[in-house]
Amino acid sequence: MIENPNEVVTKALVRSVKVPGLDKPVALITLDNGFDHKKPNSFGPAGLTSLDEAITAATAADPAFIAITGKPYIFCVGADITGMPLLSSHEQAAELGELGHRVFARLKNSTIPTFAFVNGAALGGGLEVALHCHYRTVSTGAAALGLPEVAIGLVPGWGGSQLLPNLIGIAGAAQVILQNPLTQKVLRPKQAKEMGVADALFPAADFLEDSLAWAAGVVKGDVTVERPEIDREMWDGVLWFAKNQLDEKLHGAVPSANKALELLALAKDASFEDGTAAETEALAGLIMGDEARASLYAFDLVQRRAKRPVGVPDASLARKVTKVGIVGAGLMASQLALLFLRRLQVPVVLTDLDQARVDKGVGYVTEQIDKLVAKRRLDEGTAAKLRGLISGSVDRSVFADADFVIEAVFENLELKKQIWAEFEKIVKPETILATNTSSLSLTEMAADLEHPERVVGFHFFNPVAVLPLLEIIKGEKTDDATLATAFAVGKELKKSSVLVKDAPAFVVNRVLTRFTSEVFKAIDAGTPLDVVNEAFDPLGLPMRPIALLQLVGPAVAYHVGETLHTAFPDRYVDSPNLKKIVDAGLPLLVDDEINVEVVKLLDAGDAPLTADEVRVKALTALAEEIRIMLDEGVVAQAQDIDLCMILGAGYPFHLGGITPYLDRSGIAEQVTGKRFLPDGAANVRRA
Fold first, then answer.
1. 308 Cβ partners below 8 Å, 6+ apart?
2. Which of 372, 460, 479, 492 has its CA 20 to 30 A from that of 404?
3. Helix axes 638-649, 611-632, angle to 10 degrees
4. Domains of the chain as residue ranges with CATH
5. Distance CA 277, CA 282 (A)
6. Which of these, 178, 146, 154, 149, lies nearest to 264 by C-alpha position?
7. Mean of the per-residue pLDDT values for the chain?
8. Smallest Cα–Cα separation from 514: which of 659, 639, 623, 604?
9. Are 85 and 59 in contact (CB under 8 A)?
10. Is 149 in the active site?
11. Separation in Å, CA 189 to CA 400, 510, 643
12. How far apart are CA 8 and CA 10, in angstroms?
């Protein structure tokens, strides 16, 4: 077995516990890696070996039952993926799968009753070890339960694909193994109980005591656990429907999803031994594949780099923010107000041109607070506090004591310059002036100010409450105190912040607009809209180009395109067809189909491209643009561009963002003469 020198070993600690009503003690195994909940338990080779030894010791004690639980707040979040890049062969990957299967099966095959007391988060191999136990209890405080492997290019590889469908049925298993990972969802404790993943649900406060008492009742025969008979007649139909859904959304670009389907089909009639052998083979093949390696690279970006952004000044320079001002009261401004209000819980004041607009903005915030209370995502006490902190006024003097002011008005440079000129006379000299501009120059915006060093870009992505990316833009004169405050606020807002140089359209919009520019070059050349729209299906992008354009809004896309065409006329086109679409104001899609009225608008050229040509030209353009951005120092490294595309544009993990795909396809070297990532950074093969 390959060793992982970086493994944080989760030890399985055994103790004997006396439970009232039982003649013999209970063997309680606690998983604990020695750290708090911020570093969750996981299973690497050494951790699995420790669990194996603990099961041996527990069994030898001949207890009334064996139970496994976790350290506070965490049960186990699965395999230690830090060791996966070290696996260099199919055989090594298979060996890891076989080790997990062998150890976990001891709980399933035990003649002594086995219980999992899922006291906290249980994901991947953590949930799989629980599924091997004869019975399961779950705490109401468990943050998340699930089998998310498909989302990172893998499959449940330690029994989950075979045990879960035979426990809760194929429909529920397909939801947990396929649908939830691909939509970034997990199970909550109540759902787990309702679906049958858990046999009992207990409050967090007395979870262990309640679980021990309940388990004692099961062992004595006082408690009966009933499980429904599994319907096998609908099995094939559910998987047929799931496959059609996957083909429609992913177009075969995610091998792990298709492999998971095969394993779920096998679980219908295969023996457990044959099913787990197939799991091992599937897992080993996927671990060594490009998509899984790119997914693990993307996962590492989101879990690590996003939490430690590069280039951030010393946090001690950050100023305290006790009041926030928001210039504008439209939808974006109102969304920002709600976010700042919920996360910072300080006074937030909106302003706009007239009282009606201000009232509408404040009304939106209070309405959303009421909805959160109705959904039980906010308690009434906190809601009352937040309602008292939100206000609005047309009198801009209410911003005089604000520490942080952000504008979210129309994308017009002169308008924004005018706003900051007016507010600079009102606010304190040290007040941070942030702009939510999506493409305009901060340096130009701050050029006429007395204190341009306090202007910073704070570019959110819509919907503000959902998308985690925050591009923090440094102007030529932005100082370290301003930047440090911006990153501190971003962290309080629970956003993943990336430092970006003041350059046209920054990162996400610049990359997406270059992509859109190439799409419209093809359309202007006469390529049919449906050909262009389907050209990128082999990549498995979250949206086809036309759907993406409709989401962004043709007018917004055209405006950003104009900005970039002005800056880089040789690379960004000013498409007459996009202008026609904007002027017409027609929806691009009707019932998810391309609007025929839009097709009639277009001036067709006489040099149409094939789908393959459209895709290659667009990817070539992206490789060129990303190399230019890196050479310009827009961000520190290619990893930051990938992180921005994943968190801000929804680019999938199986591509690793964008640069791993450009590297492994050979396009990066063909276009720029070199790869974006150092060898091994995403563990992708050369073309």
1. none
2. 372
3. 120
4. 11-288 (3.90.226.10), 315-503 (3.40.50.720), 508-633 (1.10.1040.50)
5. 9
6. 178
7. 94
8. 623
9. no
10. yes
11. 47, 41, 31
12. 6
Phi, psi of 27 (to 5 degrees): -95, 115
Q: Which residues are CB-neighbours of 367 under 8 A, at least 6 positions away? A: none
Separation in Å, CA 375 to CA 139, 190, 340, 371, 538: 21, 15, 20, 6, 39
Our measurement of the distance from residue 503's CA atom to the centroid of its chain's CA atoms, rounded to an integer in Å, reads 26
Checking if the pLDDT of 177 tops 70, the result is yes
Helix (H, G, I), strand (E, B) or coil at 429: coil
**Interhelix angle for 508-524 vs 545-552, to 10°?**
120
- 460-463 contacts, C-beta under 8 A, 24 or more apart: 460/332, 460/336, 460/436, 460/495, 461/508, 461/648, 462/332, 462/335, 463/335
Between strands 200-202 and 145-146, the pairing is: unpaired
Pairing of strands 593-594, 348-351: unpaired
Residue with tokens 């499980």: 227
Q: Which two tokens stand for residue 364?
A: 């939106």
How many CB atoms neighbour CB 293 within 10 A? Answer: 24
| DSSP code at position 234 | S
Angle at 538 between CA 536 and CA 543, to 5 degrees: 50
pLDDT interval class at 609 (50, 70, 90): very high
Note whether 155 and 161 are within 8 A (CB).
Answer: yes
CA distance 677 to 504: 24
- 297: tokens are 């690279």
Separation of alpha carbons 596 and 594, rounded Å:
6
Range name among 204-213, 365-374, 677-686 with the lowest pLDDT average: 677-686
Cis peptide preceding 228, ω within 30 of 0: no
Q: How far is Cα 406 from Cα 436, in angstroms, rounded to an integer?
A: 7
| β-bridge pairing 66-70 and 114-118 | parallel
Catalytic entry in 7, 149, 407, 625: 149
128, 279, 291, 518: which is the annotated catalytic residue?
128
Two tokens, residue 188? 């909550």
436 CB neighbour count, 10 Å cutoff: 22
What is the separation, in whole angstroms, between the first and last Cα of the chain?
Answer: 30
Question: E strands, 192-339, where?
Answer: 200-202, 324-327
Cα–Cα distance between 409 and 415 in angstroms, integer?
A: 8
d(CA 285, CA 425): 64
Residue 686: is its pLDDT beyond 70? no
pTM of the predicted protein model: 0.89
Among 552, 507, 530, residue whose Cα is nearest residue 614: 530
For 465-512, the DSSP string reads TT--EEEEEE-TT--HHHHHHHHHHHHHTT-EEEEEES-TTTTHHHHH
DSSP run (H or E) holding 569: none
Q: Determine the distance from the C-alpha atom of residue 539 to the mean position of all C-alpha atoms in its chain, rounded to a whole number.
A: 18
- Calculate the alpha carbon distances from 434 to 100, 236, 407, 620 in Å: 51, 55, 7, 35
Tens-place pLDDT, residues 466-518: 889 999 999 999 999 999 999 999 999 999 999 999 999 999 999 999 999 99
Cα radius of gyration rounded to whole Å, the chain: 28
Give residue 258's pLDDT band: very low, low, confident or very high (50, 70, 90): very high
> Can you read off the two tokens belonging to residue 238?
């559910």
Widest distance between CA atoms in the chain: 87
Cβ atoms of 71 and 32 within 8 Å: the answer is yes
